[in-house]
Structure formats: structure tokens, C-alpha cells
Amino acid sequence: MPDQIIEIEKLTKNFGAITAVNELGFSVARGETVGLLGPNGAGKTTTIQMLLGLTKPTSGDIRFFNLNLQDSRRKILQRINFASAYISLPSNLTVYENLNVFGKLYGIPTPRRKIGDLLDLLEIPQVINQVTGALSSGQLTRLNLCKAFLNDPEILLLDEPTASLDPDIAEKVRLTLQNVQQEHGVTMLYTSHNMREVELMCDRVIFLSRGNIVAEGTPQEIVDNCQSESLEEVFISLARNGELKDFSELE
Amino acid sequence: MLTRINGLVLRYLYLYRRSLARAGEIFFWPIMDLLVWGFVSTYINQENNVALFLLGSVIFWDVLYRSQQAITLSISEDIWVKNILNVFVSPVSIFELMVATCIMGIIKAVITAVVLGSLAFLLYAFNIVSIGILLLPFLISLLLFGWALGMVTMALILRFGKSAEALVWGIPFLIQPFSAVFYPVEVLPNWLQIVAYTMPSTYVFEGMREVLSNGEWLNLKILMIAFLLNILYLVTGAIFFGWMFSQVREKGYLTRLGME
Ligand SMILES: Nc1ncnc2c1ncn2[C@@H]1O[C@H](COP(=O)(O)OP(=O)(O)O)[C@@H](O)[C@H]1O
Ligand SMILES: [Mg+2]
Hints:
The structure holds two protein chains of two kinds.
Chain A: E1 4-15, E2 18-29, E3 33-37, H1 44-51, E4 59-64, E5 67-68, H2 69-79, E6 80-84, H3 95-105, H4 111-121, H5 137-149, E7 155-159, H6 167-184, E8 187-191, H7 195-201, E9 204-209, E10 212-217, H8 219-225, H9 231-241
Parallel strand pairs in A: 3-8, 3-9, 6-7, 7-8
Antiparallel strand pairs in A: 1-2, 1-4, 4-5, 9-10
Helix pairs in contact in A: 5-6
Chain B: H1 2-18, H2 20-44, H3 50-80, H4 84-88, H5 94-124, H6 135-160, H7 167-175, H8 190-196, H9 200-214, H10 220-251, H11 253-259
Helix pairs in contact in B: 1-2, 1-5, 2-3, 2-5, 3-5, 3-6, 3-9, 5-6, 6-7, 6-9, 6-10, 9-10
The structure holds adenosine-5'-diphosphate (ADP) and magnesium ion.
Adenosine-5'-diphosphate (ADP) sits between chains A (15, 18, 20, 38, 40-46) and B (251-253, 255-256).
């Protein structure tokens, strides 16, 4: 069995009467890119937030690097990072200032060099002294990713990193992300509504519906098992019916 | 730990360097207060020291107010610009966050005291330094109470979200009438006097008036009470913050505050 660096067991979150996540269990191996998919309200964000220790699970276990999240949260946070299109860095600081602040929060020894390298890697070296609020949405997404790469994370959790981007910019960001992923072997768990992006990026996907896993496998396996043409089709049928009719059990 | 605290303080300071409006907030409103009350006191211009008291009160009040604001505004700002989750997913502890915002409180309070103190001297020939050595424990006492109020305010904002934001500015004014800021405790009805004496700020404002009128004020016991109360409020504030924060994590409100 390969090195499992994220392990989730019977993870459950109830918000009052709503069960957002229901006895979820899966693990992610080092170097894997796993997509967490599902219609709105499926429980993707809640799962990611629990993985980051921002939301407290009702029950269940989360382990990173064989460390329990509850006991070793800060040790774990030092080795992982997070980005989402729904959060942003302060718009009235410059790009350098923002990254410098987070460099300090993550204890980066030589922030100036690291920041330069990362901006190069994400192909936005020219914005270093610009005010963050003046960046385009594509540049902002890249900047969010720069922040997420500051601590050389072993694991990256991404909640809709490319939401609200034009398709061609989303495509470019994906290529960069893939590049970085291949170069650094970062493990990624991410949610997205862009099925094409998921097909291209993910080694494995997990489909959630109403807090339950309804399908799991490589994108190809899922498409085949659902007798669909594409992940997009699987996604749509899931969103409409709330379950996968044709889905026969899959390891 | 020091690097992380330093990082947070840097983040808050950057904001003031970038944003003139924010920097203005440190100088502008306190100065406006001082002007209004300064001229009111010039107008009153009585034989006794009421006018002096008012000026001292304005300066002292602003120290308390800025100290509370430093905590709430620092964190609220990160909520408004949707940066708060970036901070909370970094290895920063709540304790470090609190220390960083309290340092901001010190910075703001010192600036307020110096700027207003100098202006009051230039415009109204009111020398706050004439309070003497007691000035220091007075100001520290106000700073500490400001921190405690800041923690409570911040806890409520995290817990109740944007609807509680008015508290950032509102909370200090809830205590102002009962804290003998602009008038002596005696003018309050008896039962309110009891309320007043539960607040460390009351002792400071009373003490300040006494020093200004008698030239000295030796009742150190009262100063001790103020400090003990401060410690009590700080501990309570921290516990309240911790309790609210665990509820926030329980109910998943950080996501709402940070992403919506
Ligand atoms: N803080 C919260 N309080 C109450 N209900 C919540 C909260 N956060 C999410 N939910 C509910 O939990 C379910 C899952 O939401 P979420 O994890 O955001 O889904 P997704 O990210 O897959 O769209 C939804 O029904 C949502 O309304
Ligand atoms: Mg979501």
C-alpha cells in the first residue's frame, strides 16, 4: 500500500438537522491528485473546512502524515496549504507585502527570494510591486496559488481554485498548476465544477451527493461504469437525480 | 512564534501605510473629539478645573477606545477583505493573533496619547504630563481594559457575523455613560455607582480628576483595584473568546465569515 498521507474515517458533520457530511471515508496517497466533486450542497466545502480544522467534525477521524488533526493541527498546517477563489489577499497591500506577511506566518527563512521564485513559477513576476487590488482575476488566482506554495506544502487543499475565471484563463492556471504539481510532486485534493479540468488533472475522483460518496475511481472508470460519455454527463445526472442509477459497485 | 506575531503586526501596519483613510482614523477622529471638547471647555471656562478634566477625559477615553478598536478592527478588516481564512489556515495560534492585535493596541494608544497630549498642550495649554508618574499606570490600565473589551467584541463578531459589526464601534459607548468618563461618579444614581465601580476605567477617570484637582493622588489601593479588575476582565474576555471560538468552529461559521 502506498504512503497514505491523508486518511479520513467515518467523518460526519451535522449542522442541526442537516447532515452535510455523512460517515465519509477515503484516503489520499502521496503525490496523488484527487478531485472532490458533486452538486452544490454535496458537502465538499464542509469536508475541506474540516480537513483544515476550521470546522469541528461531529464525529470521525482525520489524519495527515499519520498525525491526528485534532492533536497536531498547527504542525500539520505548517506542512499543507489552502487556496480558494472565494478568499483573497488584502487588496490594499502590494503583492510583495502580502506574500511577505504570509512568509512570516509560515516562517520562511528567505522570503524575498522565495517570493521571487514563486512569482516566476506562476508566471506573474511583473506584479511584485503592484497593489493587489489592481490585479486581473487570472493574476489574483495565481497570486492565491503563490501564497499556497509559500511553505512548500506537501499537500494542497483547493476549494474551487478556478471558479469565476474565464475558460481560457482557467485553462492557463490549470496548466501552471499541473506543471508545479509534476515538478514538486505536491499531493492535491480539490473541488471544482469544471469537469474538463478534473478529467485532465485528477488521478482519481470522489463524487459526493448529500454528504455521501456515490462514486469513486479514475475519471475513466467512473465514466465507463455510469455508461456515460463524460464526467460532465455523470455530474449532470447526479445533480438532477441526486444519485447514480447506473453506477455498479466499484472499488 | 515571534516571527508569526511580527508577521501579523506587519500586516496590520502595512494597511495603515497603504490606506490614508485608515491612517486618518488614528488621527482624525481623536483630534475632532479633542477639538469639540476643547472648545466646550474653553467656553465653560469656570473657576474650577472642570475644563481641564474634560480635556483629560477626552484623551484618556480615546486611549481606551483605540485599544479596543485595534483588536476588533485588525481582525474585522481581514473578514471584510476575505483574508481571514488565509490567516486561520496558517500555523498561527489564537494566542499569537491576540498578542499581535494587542501590540497594535499599544501602538495606537501611544500615538493617540502623544498626538492628543501635544495638541491639548498647544491649543489649550493643557499639560497632560502634569498628572505625573501616575499617568503611566492610568494609561496602562485603560489599555488593558480596552484589550478585554476588544476580545469580547471580536468574539461576538466571529460568532454573530456581519450583523454584529456595529459592535466594533458600539461596545465602548455602552460603557461610557457608566464609567464616569466626563463626570464624577457621584452624579450617577446609587445603583449605577455600583455598576460604575465594577469597571476599571471608572477608577482611572476618577483618579485623573483627583490628581488634576489636588495635584497628587496617593490612594494606591484604588489603583490596585483597577488592575485587579483588569486582570479579571482580561481573563474573562479570553475565556469568552475561546468559548465563542469553539462554538464558531462547531457551527462552521468561519466558512461563512470568510468565504461569503
Ligand atoms: N455553517 C453552516 N451551517 C448550516 N448549514 C451549513 C453550513 N455550512 C454548510 N451547510 C450546509 O451543508 C450542506 C453542504 O454544504 P457545502 O459543504 O457548502 O456544500 P458544497 O461545497 O458541496 O456545495 C449544505 O446543505 C449547506 O447548506
Ligand atoms: Mg462549496
